[in-house]
Amino acid sequence: MSTVGWLAWVLVVVGAINWGLIGAANLNIVEAVVGSGSLAQVVYILVGLGGLYLLWGAVSKKA
User: Fold this and answer.
1) Which of 27, 42, 46, 47 could form an SS bridge with 15, CB 3.0 to 4.6 Å?
2) What pTM, to 2 d.p., does this model score?
3) CB-side exposure of 55: number of CA atoms within 13 Å?
4) What pLDDT digit, counting tens, does each position of 43-56 carry?
């Protein structure tokens, strides 16, 4: 797995765990670690880009 692929995978796992904790315990780990400002927004954007990268990889392998 490439470095970008590995990083995308880690970001998506972090995002999934964060959403699970938000739903189960109303606990946002990203905001607890980096605060609720611009840095948290950057983390959310990176998680989204990681998800799109993995989705693109999954779709392109089936084509």
Assistant:
1) 47
2) 0.85
3) 7
4) 999 999 999 999 99
